[in-house]
Hints:
Helices cover 52% and strands 8% of the residues.
Amino acid sequence: xxxxDNDYRKLRRNLTTRALQLERGIGIKGNKxxxxxxxxxMRFAVLLISNTALRPSTMLKLRHLHITREPGNRAxxxxxxxxxxxxxxxxxxxxRKDQDRVILSHDYDATYGYYQxxxxxxxxxxHPTRPQDxxxxxxxxxxxxxxLAAYFRKLLEDWDLLEDWSTGIARNRVLYSLRSYxxxxxxxxxxxxxxxxxxxxxxxxxxxxxxxxxxxxxxRDFLHKDRTITGKTRNFAVxxxxxxxxxxxxxxxxxxxxx
Length: 259
């Protein structure tokens, strides 16, 4: 199944609201450490896949040394203090075994900011965060990837987001659905197909095969040059920084009203 804009925003809003509730000790049943680490891990995973189009299987193998902050080098980027989230993907953990890859998430610090937040929470609860440690290591077995698929399904079920009926037939959404959504949104916003293929660690041929509808929107942008999306907004992030901030504010307001 695939995500639509409203479904994706509902997922992100619910994750943010639940994270704030756990942070404030609201609705905790059982082990706070396990619940909070699990939720924050999922929250960052959803954002990372959405802003980079990484395969979940590759993402789960990432270590802390693989994610860094890359300052922008263009004049306007330096002036505004813009930066990117840089993901270094060794060929050993990628589906494409031909060479190491570098992914830049053009979200101007949103992804790296969430990474720092998640890392600080891991450190707060004594979870290992050395450069060689897995970013998405299990709470009980940090040297093993966490089982995000099962937890993601449970959250989708709880929030009535599991099934996608857009084709008239119920299809379950999974973590990989976020990758498909990220690729679709990037193409719709005018990101070049070769950039999309590079960033999502796949081929142009596979993009053309599976995302023809989104490619038609991409081409429409270039056919109408007077309406071409500017380079500043042609980025890979599903949500802008302003939208991220608005989502955070809405979640805080909801939690405060409920408490």
